[in-house]
Every structure is written in structure tokens, then in C-alpha cells.
Amino acid sequence: MPTLLSVNLNAIAMLRNRRDLPWPNVCDLGRIALAAGASGLTVHPRPDQRHIRFSDLPDLRALIDDLFPEAEFNIEGYPTEEFLALCEATQPEQVTLVPDDPSQATSDHGWDLVGQHGFLCDVIGRLKGKGMRVSLFVDGDGRSEPMALAKTTGADRVELYTGPYGGCHSDPASAAAEIEKLGVTADAARAEGLHVNAGHDLTVANLPALIARIPYLSEVSIGHGLTADALEFGMAETVKRFRRACGQVV
Ligand SMILES: CC(=O)[C@@H](O)[C@H](O)COP(=O)(O)O
Ligand SMILES: NCC(=O)COP(=O)(O)O
């Protein structure tokens, strides 16, 4: 089974939020991603709604239900009461719990599975009771032991935080070391019967080596790098469209 791709729309939403205008439209971009074969959409609604807005969620849910019923909706975030209520109203196929503080610029670490164990058991029980699959954002730091604890929370999956790997884009030796750490943690999770997802700062360049080490990787969720590529590889055609709009013969 190949690794599935869930397209994270946060970066698109952040661009949209620069103006009080409805473009780039997150639903339209989500539709294009799913039509191109992405297996799902990911959003990370933060309390200040600086990227995805809570009001985006019903539209994205309807997009999947109406046009792509095989696709999955993955909602990521810190499980405040507000976040849990959003998940219950939206019924994503997967909820990824992330230990982000509201002040964080972006996600930069996994859960403290010892200190937060009881809290996570309660939250996961609540979400699973409502029919949602739950994944836990964890550090891929080469430790095996936390994966046994992750299993006892009731989670179905873990998502390896791949930020440190992504940060090694110009340092192959460090990248290889990070891959091995991710692999050891992934192997331990798999041995516990957990499915393994991964995400943060993944790119076309760094994905193949990661999947070579973790061939059973279930899903990657990618936003920043994918959006950057969409801009770069879509720029030439877009400039032609605008030149035509200027009356130029292109
Ligand atoms: C959970 C995670 O790894 C993050 O990558 C996150 O979902 C991205 O969120 P932002 O794009 O809002 O920083
Ligand atoms: N779960 C990680 C994610 O959804 C996307 O992270 P990034 O590609 O925007 O770094």
C-alpha cells in the first residue's frame, strides 16, 4: 500500500487572509488537490484563526462528502473544548492531536506522553466514542519506549514530527541521522500496532528517502512545501493568463 498524501490547506488560507477577499479559495484549491489524486485534506485551525477559519470547515466537509466521498478530512490541533466541539460538528475521518501552545508560530514538538497521558486518554476516548480515528503528533527522536505509552492512550496512529528532518535540507549527513531516528520511532510504533503518519516540512526532495526507511508509512500531510511548489510550477501559466487579460497575444 503506497503512502497516501493529505494536502494541508493552512498556507492557502494564510494567503487568503491577507485581504478581505475570498481568494485564493481554500475549497477550490482543495477540490483541485483531490481531483489530482490527493487522498485527503488537512487543516490545522488555530485558536486565533490566522490560517484556517472555523467557518471553512463545513465547506470543506461538504466538498469531500459531495464530490470526493473516498477522500478523508484530517483536522489537526490542540484539544481545547472549542477544538473538540469543532471536530464533533465536522466529523473528520481523522483527528490529529498536536500539543501546540496558542503562541507558537507553527508546530515544533510532539506530545509529552508521560505528563499528558491521562488528559490524552480522556480526549481520545471522547473522539473515538464519536467515531473519529485519532492520531497523536509525536517526536521522531529515535526513542522507542514512548510508543508503548502512545498505544495505551487508545490512539490509532501516531504522526511523526518531521521538522528536524526538513531542517536538514542542505546537510545530507544530518538528514540521514534524522531519518534513522524517525525510523526507529516508527518501527516501535508499528510494533505496538499503531499506524504511522508523518508531517512537517516535507518536500518532493526529502520524501523519497523517508519512505525508503519507513515503507509502511500510511500518510503524509504536506502544506508549506506543497504550496510553494504549486506557486512555482503554476507561475508561468498564470503570467500568460494575466498577459492575455492585458490584451497581449500569448
Ligand atoms: C501539525 C503540524 O505539523 C503542522 O505542520 C501544522 O499542521 C501546520 O500548521 P501551520 O501551517 O499552520 O504552521
Ligand atoms: N501535519 C503536518 C502538516 O499537515 C503540514 O505541515 P507542513 O507541510 O505545512 O510543514
Automatic annotation (TrEMBL):
The keyword Transferase is annotated on this UniProt entry: yes
Site (Transition state stabilizer): 159
Superkingdom to which the source organism belongs: Bacteria
Active site: 44, 76, 200
Keyword tags: Cytoplasm, Pyridoxine biosynthesis, Transferase
Subcellular location per the Swiss-Prot or TrEMBL entry: Cytoplasm
InterPro entries reported for this sequence: Aldolase_TIM, PyrdxlP_synth_PdxJ, Pyridoxine-5'_phos_synth
Enzyme class: transferase
Coiled coil: none
Transmembrane feature ranges: none
Residues holding 1-deoxy-D-xylulose 5-phosphate: 46, 51, 106
Subunit structure: Homooctamer; tetramer of dimers.
Name of the featured protein: Pyridoxine 5'-phosphate synthase
Organism per entry: Peteryoungia ipomoeae
Encoding gene (name): pdxJ
